[in-house]
UniProtKB/TrEMBL annotation:
Descriptive protein name: CMP/dCMP-type deaminase domain-containing protein
Pfam families: dCMP_cyt_deam_1
InterPro entries documented for this protein: CMP_dCMP_dom, Cytidine_deaminase-like
A GO term for molecular function: catalytic activity
Organism this protein belongs to: Peribacillus saganii
SUPFAM superfamilies according to UniProt: Cytidine deaminase-like
Residue ranges annotated for the CMP/dCMP-type deaminase domain, each copy included: 1-63
Lineage, opening ranks: Bacteria, Bacillati, Bacillota, Bacilli, Bacillales
Amino acid sequence: MTSHDFYMDLALHNGKAISGQTDPNPLAGSVIVNDNRVVGYGAHLKAGEPHAEINALRMAGEKQWSN
């Protein structure tokens, strides 16, 4: 398994963990990686709330840009 596969699996797992809470929106998970380190992750938690990418970016903060 490559690191890309690992990160994609992590994003998919994040989305699936919220199954049943996002209707009518689809499940979504996101992972932010910098220098081979996960610096943020998120899921779309509920319809009408921020999507997975926004939650992951908020968690990552400035770490998404620094090395």
